[in-house]
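Internal QA ticket QA-208
Title: Verify multi-chain structure generation after dependency bump
Assignee: T.L.

Test input:
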Amino acid sequence: NAGVTQTPKFQVLKTGQSMTLQCAQDMNHNSMYWYRQDPGMGLRLIYYSASEGTTDKGEVPNGYNVSRLNKREFSLRLESAAPSQTSVYFCASSEGQGASYEQYFGPGTRLTVT
Amino acid sequence: QKEVEQNSGPLSVPEGAIASLNCTYSDRGSQSFFWYRQYSGKSPELIMFIYSNGDKEDGRFTAQLNKASQYVSLLIRDSQPSDSATYLCAVTGGSYKLIFGSGTRLLVRP
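Actual output:
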């Protein structure tokens, strides 16, 4: 039982390049999330998927797109990377029903855009 | 703007002492409250959650919730150097979403 996995662990991009961050969970959770974490800013929600087939914007969605490929997988795409997107990206999942909002996090992707 | 506020610290306590971490939130409708621990360079790890007013104990950790005053706290008894980390408070801000504070850094001195 791996929990939440993310690939890649590290990535360096040049401005304007694109990439997709992958996330998968094996806990049969309904809801999945993408966050970014910057120094002194805490975790900020980029996009979330309450259930398979649905996605919604979070607090900081500009410059990102997401795909909920199936119940297990939720990917985050940067179409044209900018230095402001240098950050640590975390994927998380939760059962998402009723009061069960506990979220479990993947190990993170450290992205640098030059 | 719904907010969750935490003192960034660092909060420095000697080994064996009680560490008290506090968090205030602005949304009176919030119903679920979580404490995550994050070691440097690692992902957040859930350590406690609380839904009802009062105290909830789990080993050396106690979460306290006061909805009238809109604060939630985390007490760590018999603090150990291994407890040194950043502690993130998170509050439900609507269906399926958590709002995180920026975290309090705790240092436990041997």
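Spot checks passed. DSSP finds no helices and eleven strands in chain B.
Status: verified.
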